[in-house]
Amino acid sequence: MTKKRLYIISLDAFGDADLTFASTLPNFRKLLARSALVTGVRTVYPSLTYMAHTSIATGMYPNQHGIVNNTRLQPERVSADWYWYEKDIKTPTIFQVAKKAGYSISTLLWPVTGRSKAIDYNLAEIFPNRPWQNQMIVSGFASSLTYALDMNKKFKHLRNGIEQPELDDFITAVAIDTIKNKKPDMMAIHLVDLDSTRHKYGVKSTQARDAVVRMDKRLGEILTTLKECDMMEDTVLAVLGDHYQIDTHTVIRPNHLFVQKGWIQTDKNNRITDWKVILKAADGAAYIYRKDSSITNKMILDTLKGIDSRIDKIFTKEEFKYDGVDENAVFILEAKAGYYFKEDVSYPFMESTDKTLSGRTLAKATHGFHPDKHNYNTMLLLSGPGINTKARLEGARLVDEGPTLLHAIGLAFPVKTDGHILKELFL
Fold it and tell me: Which of 2, 103, 163, 262 sits 20 to 30 Å CA-CA off 361?
């Protein structure tokens, strides 16, 4: 069998709702004309980037693959570590399956790929999280070192640290260079400009629309490169979103309630030193964890009545099992639209996101919300050999994408996945 390439471009925070405007732009319009389209793609819960991308890459829900948040439960740390490294994933990834099949692989800022042995050309998404670290060192040792150094030497002039939109400009340049000079059999690119912009300015802001225009330009540059390298005809191309966002007006820090109950201990700087019950934020959602079994569910629920007007739903462990969330939690809270959670107690119990603050920012929009929130779905565009470009499918799950993408290139996961193949997309 002739080997088919698979190229995946993830557009972070791109939703169904963006297609109307995107379809007026030249490169999105070309993609839509040559692609099967899946709308109404249901993301995971909480709908965070690292959980979502790992579910795409494994076909599994978070409780199966192990990435249950962007960051670890480390309340005593000022800044918790992220799930950066592939070793944290408990189930096979598309990259591992492809590597075993003899594929050469490149990933660019794809979450949870740090120190992957399956990836030949890897620029891992990671940033320094300790005072003694710097970006070049942590990135180099989590990535393919020689490749990372070479790409940085060539294109570092495009970067401004990890700031957007410069970072996506850098990644696009790296992608083009890698396609031309390495021609990997599989490539996964994670573009974050739109997500960052929406956090900063809001979902439907002028700045967000400008980010979609920049995204269209980057897609065009990648498509042009594939054509110039005569790679389009044997490449399955997937362009997909991971979640959407919802505008916010208020941030809530419910751990203040647990401090008042004596369930969380802090030092003189309001840093958490120990805890019995704690909230772990996931933006529009939040986990509640418990170490002290003498604190009952009713006691926790009674304490949370202080914010019940800002909570849409409190899910019990039995209720949230079907969504694949972390089963080590006691509850998961769903914020009402307009609100989101943070876990620290260094700042006020509630703050308006419109505040101008020195040295810190609050999100004007965010994600993490339940996938059934109104108008919150994302999408998938799929094109290339064997794909029915006339197919239009309404309704799928993010976990369906991994099995579908492997099927498109004649491969399959070695284990049964939560997701299934979207057979309607194939000729």
Answer: 262
| pLDDT score for 318 | 85
Residues 158 and 261 in one domain: no
Tens of pLDDT, residue by residue over 363-418, are 999 999 999 999 999 999 999 999 999 999 999 999 999 999 999 999 999 999 99
For 152, other C-beta atoms within 10 Å of its C-beta total 18
Q: How large is the angle between the packed helices 193-201 and 206-228, nearest 10 degrees? A: 180
CATH label of the domain that carries residue 259: 3.30.1360
How many distinct structural domains can be found in the chain?
2
Please, is 222 exposed, middle or buried when counting C-beta atoms within 10 Å of its C-beta (0-12, 13-18, 19+)? buried
pLDDT computed for residue 322 by the predictor:
77
Clarify whether residues 186 and 325 are in a common domain.
no
- Asked whether the predicted pLDDT for residue 211 surpasses 80, the reply is yes
* pLDDT > 90: percent of the chain: 91
At residue 272, the 3 state secondary structure works out as strand
Q: Is the pLDDT of residue 223 over 60?
A: yes
**Secondary structure (DSSP) of 24-75:** TSHHHHHHHHTSEEEEEEE--SS--HHHHHHHHHHS--HHHHS--SSB---T
Q: Say yes or no: 292 and 187 in one domain.
A: no
Residue with tokens 């993010």: 398
Same domain, 359 and 264: yes
Based on the number of CB atoms within 10 Å of its own CB, is 388 exposed (0-12), middle (13-18) or buried (19 or more)?
A: middle
Tracing tokens 């004007």 back to the chain, one arrives at 364
Indicate the average pLDDT of the chain: 96
CA 185 to chain centroid, in Å, comes to 23
pLDDT attached to residue 1:
55
Q: Which two tokens stand for residue 298?
A: 């009713």
- 86 shares a domain with 37: yes
Q: What is the CA radius of gyration of the chain?
A: 21
Final residue in a domain of this structure, among 366, 391, 413? 366
Residue 65 sits at φ, ψ, to 5 deg, of -85, -15
SS3 407: helix
Alpha helices in 229-278 (DSSP H): 255-260
- Are residues 65 and 203 located together in one domain of the fold? yes
pTM attached to this predicted model: 0.97
Token pair in block for residue 380: 């998938």
- Residue 307: which domain range? 247-366
Same domain? For 240 and 143 the reply is yes
Least confident of 60-74, 261-275, 318-332: 318-332
